[in-house]
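Render this sequence as a predicted structure.
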Amino acid sequence: MNILRINDVKNITSMSNSSIYDLIKKNKFPRPRRIGKRAVGWLENDIQAWLESRPEAGSWDLLKKKNIVSWKIVVTWDNNIDEDIVDIPNDVADTIDNYLTEMENENGES
C-alpha cells in the first residue's frame, strides 16, 4: 500500500491543488489520510479507484443516458480564473452542446 503526497496526486490526476480540495469538499474525491502532525497523504488504491470510476473521454452518450452530465466550467473575469466540475441536467447540457456546435459551424471548425 503506497502513500501519495499532494504532488503525486496532482501529477497522476493532472488537477490543481484547488480542484482536488474543491472536489474533496463536495465528497467527489478521496479524502487524504493523516500521516503525521502536519502531513497528509492519499492511498494509491483510492486514487486509482477514483480514476477508474471516471467516464472515458468521448462517452457523452453514456453520460446523457444517466440524465446528468458532468462538465468542467471555467470562468474568467478581471484576470481571475475560477473552475469547477458541475453536474447539470440533460436539457441544459443539450442547449449548451447545440450552442457550441453552432459556434463551431459559424467559425468553420469541425
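Summary. Residues 94 and 100 are 10 Å apart (CA to CA). The first strand starts at residue 3 and ends at 4.
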